[in-house]
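I am hoping you can look over what I have pasted underneath with an eye to the fold:
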Amino acid sequence: MGPWREESKLLRQTVMWCSLVRLRQAAMHAGGSRGNREREREEASRERGSREAAFTYAITAAGVAHAITAACSQGNLSQCGCDREKQGYYNQEEGWKWGGCSADIKYGVEFSRRFVDAREIKKTTRRLMNLHNNEAGRKVLEERMKLECKCHGVSGSCTTKTCWTTLPKFREIGYILKDKYNEAVHVEVVRASRLRQPTFLKVKKTQGFRKPMETDLVYIERSPNYCEEDAATGSVGTQGRLCNRTSPHTDGCDLMCCGRGYNTHQYTKVWQCNCKFQWCCFVKCNTCSERTEVFTCK
């Protein structure tokens, strides 16, 4: 298989992987979800410049960078490998040097920029928002790179150390971006050019032109109310949804039902149990039953 076909195959695998990551991470980590999370948030990400969109773009960009960097370290790509810049002594006084295979995060991040950012062509406010959130996701990943070391010396002493950089678990990035989602910054566009095209984003309702931080997630439209049915935004609301009475998380009745309370439904489940083979030739079973309660939002 030629290098181009090899790269194309890995690229397709990466895109599929990142699509799965985006959906799973959005469902798992984007806190406060009370509606039909997979469908509603995906719709929000495509149609609205909301904080859900910010999370989706950030975690997708980080996911591509993470996947490509991992593929490089594992030798699955012919165009990259270990980070060649991390060689020799890093700090002579501390007595450690680069060794092993350091993850080439720079290559992964640059690949993510070329691949993920390429679709942002139109010069619109949404383009600025998307590009900022893409970069924020990659920046969070870069800042969470880990340094691992191994000691060398007689009888277990640590005369010298060999160190290398490794990728964090992607779940860790998901949790960080969840926090960023909860603290997302509302921004507005500044049109500084003579053509009045969107030039940069600034924090909304602040004096001057204070820009958001590099790792802030930003949004330009407020999220719809997922508690109530709204045909315009695609929200199906939470009325009638199953909830967990004892859970303190987003599946719990307190959060899922948005303070409206819940209904309790009781039913009896009946099934055959304790089945035994009788000679000859039939199976005799007892009838077992269990009383169960389920809870739905009012």
Observations:
- DSSP finds seven helices and twelve strands in the chain.
